[in-house]
Amino acid sequence: MPAYTPPLRDMQFVMHEVLKVSDEFKAMPAHADVDADTINAVIEQAGKFAAEVAFPLNISGDTEGCVLNKTTHEVKTPTGFKDAYAKYVEGGWASLSCDPAYGGQGLPFVLNQCLYEMLNSANQAWTMYPGLSHGAYEALHAHGTDAQKALYLPKLTSGDWTGTMCLTEPHCGTDLGLMRTRAEPQADGTYKITGNKIFISAGEHDLAANIIHLVLARLPDAPKGSKGISLFVVPKFHVNADGSLGGRNPIFCTGLEHKMGIHGNATAQIALDGAMGTMVGQPNKGLAAMFVMMNAARLGVGNQSLGLTEVAYQNALAYAKDRIQSRSLSGTKAKDKDADPIIVHPDVRKMLLTAKAYAEGGRALQLYCTLLLDKVHSHPDEQVRQDSEELVALLTPIVKAFITDNGHISTNACLQVFGGHGFIKEWGMEQYVRDNRINMIYEGTNTIQSLDLLGRKVLGNNGATLKKLGKLIGQLVEEEGVNEKMAEFINPVAMLGDQMTKFTTEIGFKGMQNPDEVGAAAVDYLRVAGHLVFGYLFARMAQVALREIAAGNTDPFYRAKLQTARFYFAKLFPETATLMQTARAGSKVLMDTDLALA
Fold it and tell me: What is the SS3 assignment for 164?
């Protein structure tokens, strides 16, 4: 059976020693009193909940799955899921970073990030129920009317109700312009919504008294394409003016998807048969409102793979230390045993360190992004808010695609460490591989994220935001460029930073002649950008570790961090050279292939 230990020490290192979040919070009136002790106390308790309540239900939830009663359209979640959710609500975890005006605790998003990383390590399928609710809360908080906020946000904040987003339809996934669900205006200002949605995570369940669906639909006079989409809030049960529940709204689960992983989460087919809803935001401007939830979900999906990478690594490491197999190539290491533990073999260490490096780099990036979000929402300086918003917009597709791709690499590597046992369910490793696989697909496939990064976030503003990231990297290079002990960490980042400008400009010029050039280069480009950001953050982590060691700190954590950083720069970061070469190979070898694909 697998085990899980919350990585509190590494979280504390990134927050307190690298990002210095407490100092950052002092500049934000809403969070000025949030100190290191408060942060540590919250994440320690969050870790206990994840490890002791959610984690024990992971394998059993995967085995049991969800069950739909086709007569009542109700879904029963796996045994223990409902009780765990009740404890989650009772513990106040749903309200952690929500607005105090609606019953929230108002704590920084950074703390929510730590909570959800640990919950995803413990049980991704279960965590998706409250995770999607938080996205629905964010969308309504940003774009809902005062009446909608008063009606729905207190219950979403408390966790008494959950939320979903209903986008995908049987004939359209990413291309929402093809959507057919329609909304008919009524005399009382409401709308009757009719259509079919699929792949709706947490779309029906027995955890909460009501489910608040955010549904994309078209008005009768809507223009074609994505410019004719509106957003509606459609509750499972009607909500009376006093907040009590009324009758059933005709929005029903008609089927559950039989899928590769996340079996404990109800991936629902949803039918709306004249369901009553109210509009969120402006007519035909629904995507703008929904993007609040979608961007939150993209960061959340990256967090799912971070969580799975961490728990897979922990278990593979423990197995590699215990499993004896063959002798070390450089001579016997365990003379008292018939064979050496497999951790002595170089390639086993490579697989373990790959997962460890991708977990620690991913954690640093996630916490950095959520600190930027805290600045966006709470910093009093408008310029700081604007710069933070631009940076997090640039980094969001990298978080979603780079971390989930790395999660795929890492969970497969950790399964490989187990050999044949990794393929067997009871060890838990094959579930991590299966559960992670969806993360590369939903909330916009990783190719869509790559097109978003290169086409919209970089070329769309002529590299202006990329230059802001480059400025941050340049500041670190200037600060540590003459420090010989930092050379192995700084030089690769400095070199790639310089190459990135020419690389981006080259693809941009080619794309002006032929847009397929952008499509052909985008996936490789995002991965190069991901390594640039990871390299920058690993250099910052190495900087802190070296300073602590120089000051006489004997905590082995710091030497371990340097060893992980050295591995990353030696074995993973050099992938960028190949990626830039393949990106420059262009679109012809892809598009001039009609005979090959006949």
Answer: strand
Rg (CA), the chain: 24
At 490 the three-state DSSP class reads: helix
Which of 117, 430, 443, 517 is the catalytic position?
Answer: 443
Give the single-character DSSP code of 443: S
pLDDT digits (tens, 9 = 90+) for 501-560: 999 999 999 999 999 999 999 999 999 999 999 999 999 999 999 999 999 999 999 999
Per the listing, tokens 């994440």 go with 43
Give the tens place of pLDDT for each residue, 303-312. 999 999 999 9
Q: Which residue in this structure is represented by tokens 């910052």?
A: 540
- Residue 249's SS3 state is coil
At 79 the three-state DSSP class reads coil
HSE-CB at 319 with a 13 A cutoff on CA atoms is: 26
Asked if 204 is an active-site residue, the reply is no
The amino acid at 306: L
DSSP letters, 194-221, are: EEEEEEEET-S-SSSSEEEEEEEEB-TT
Tokens of 330: 């450089």
Q: Which residues of 200-226 are buried (b: 16+ CB within 10 A; e: fewer)?
A: bbbbbbebbebbbbbbbbbbeebeeee
Number of other CB atoms surrounding residue 334 within 10 Å: 13
- Give counts: helices (H), strands (E), the chain: 18, 11
Q: Is the pTM of this model over 0.90?
A: yes
